[in-house]
Each structure stands twice: as C-alpha cells, then as structure tokens.
Amino acid sequence: MTYLAKPRLLTANAPRNALGYTRRDYEGAISTLCAGCGHDSISAAVVQACYDLDIEPHRVAKLSGIGCSSKTPDYFLGNSHGFNSVHGRMPSVLTGAALANRELIYLGVSGDGDSASIGIGQFAHAMRRGVNMTYIVENNGVYGLTKGQFSATADKGSKSKRGVVNNDSPIDLVALALQLGATFVARSFSGDKEQLVPLIKAALRHCGPAFIDVISPCVTFNNHAGSTRSYDYVREHNEAVNRVEVILPRDKIETTYPPGSLRRIVQHDGSILHLRKLAEDYDPSDRIGALNYLQGRQALGEIVTGLLYVGDGTQDMHGHLNTVDKPLNQLGDAYLCPGAKALEALNASLR
After folding, report:
1. Fold observed for domain 23-321
2. pLDDT band at 110 (very low <50, low <70, confident <90, very high)
3. φ and ψ at 133, to 5 degrees?
C-alpha cells in the first residue's frame, strides 16, 4: 500500500494558532478521491475547524467505516488517533472507545451507505445513547466505490447518471437524529465553507451526540441534471435557516447584530454559539418544530441547511451511566476486577 505525504516545507511567516501549530499540522495524506469530490471540501473544513479551535491533534480520535467518505480521515489530522472499522460498525466502535477513554475528542466520519443502510441500527443507538461525539455523514446519495448505485438517502424521483429513476423513498438521517435524541443536529453543503466550518466547530464543542449531515456531490456518478445531490441542484434549492459563529470562552464577546436578530447559546465548555436568524420564525431549540419545518420545506423541494436543533448539551452517555471521572483504560485491575465478594454483593442488590 502506498501512502502519499505532503511536503513539510513552510514559509517563515506561515500563520500559527495559539498552540503554535500551522494549518499544515492538521492535514493528512494527499487525497486519492476524484478531483472535485465534495468530501475533500469537508476534510478541509475539519482541518480549518480544528486549527481555529486550537485543538491538539493527539487529543482527537477519528473513526470511520467503509466507503469513499470513510477514506477521508486519512486526509486530515494525520497526528491524531485513527481507526477504520468494518462497514456500518463505526458507531459501536466509537462508543466503546468513548467509554474506555472519555478524555479524547471523538469524531466519527461516515457516508450515506455506511450509516443509512448496513449501519442504520448502529447510527440509531449511538444517537439515543447520548455518545459524546461529532458524527459527520458525507452524503452524496450514491455508492461511489461500487459505480454509482442509489443509496438509501437518494431522493425519490432522482435520476442516475445512466438515466435510471429512483422509485424508493429516502431515509432522512437528520429527521432520525432529531427523533432519536441527538442534542445537536445540523445539515450543510460541502460547497459552503462559511457555513460548514462554524457548524463543525460548534459540534466539536458540544457535549453529547452532535450530528451533521453534509450534502457532498459525487462528481463522477451524481453531479448531473436530474440528480438532487449535484452542485447546481443544491445551490439552487438551498435554504439556510441561520448562520453560526463560535466564540471561545477566552474571547471578549462582542456583536454588531441588531437586537432581535441574534440568538446566543452557551455550550457546556463555555464557548458561545451566535445564531443569526435568516428563516422567519425559526426556533433551533424546538425539536418538533424542526421536524415539521424540514418536512414542509422538503415538500417544496428545498434543502434546509444550518443548525437545525440544539438542545441541552450538559450531559452525555457518561452522565447517563454515572461512570467514574477517570478514564476506564487508566483504572487498575483491583478496581475493574474487585473479586468474587464484590460480584456476590452486586448480584444480591439486583435480586
């Protein structure tokens, strides 16, 4: 297997963040995806978000499944932890890792085939269990590695490159995430860096399951007339409900937005989300309202993007399970295996 590395040469005045890292320190290997693939734009957005947030790369654990999207973690955060799991099983592997070491920042990257087909059960349980993670689905509506068949998220009535019409109803992962209890739900477009980077930054700062569905056109199999995942279609039918700005706790909070047009949401770590409302009367704290809004706009053929829902991000799976503060992988045998008497007492308490 051949790995492509980027040259390490940097100019003397290369910008550095508060940790002294350059943007190059957050990059990975050279992409082997098709030129123009939307997934590469998502990788660039992840790089920019981590650079802006001054995240130490070794504090990030990135996990993926199988597919074009699941290759992308190799293209960013080359100095972070990484694990490429089997098809559709990324959420359970990430859940186990998060239980073992709560001190890492968990980033799951998947695709519409990986999460909406073989892995849909895994996706559902990761959302409802409140795993503290950022879960990004790079959604292009096709199976790119197997020559462009429709995926489970392909819109009914959309056409393939060969002119075949999809007659199956799509699975909307955003709607599922809302129904299953995710506390941060967003949708974006790989071609909209100004929207996507702040959403990723906000998701990384959120406590609990943060899900971002990113429409990411496949330039080889799904970027033609008749496709609802093409660059042209998404740009023509995109309706942004808000614009997101993330302000870190150490910064002075200032805004020039007029009264009534800005919503300020404090996250668990003290970072602040500034939401500038674009859609009339849209409330990102109303889970049921978000579902209704999505369905109404979908009926009009519109793709709603932005931060669709954000809830109480103060507790995650560790809080629900009341686990110890110390990572489980740092506990000794005496604590993890206290002996027969402790087991007997535990069993007695359950009778």
Report:
1. Rossmann fold (3.40.50)
2. very high
3. -160, 165
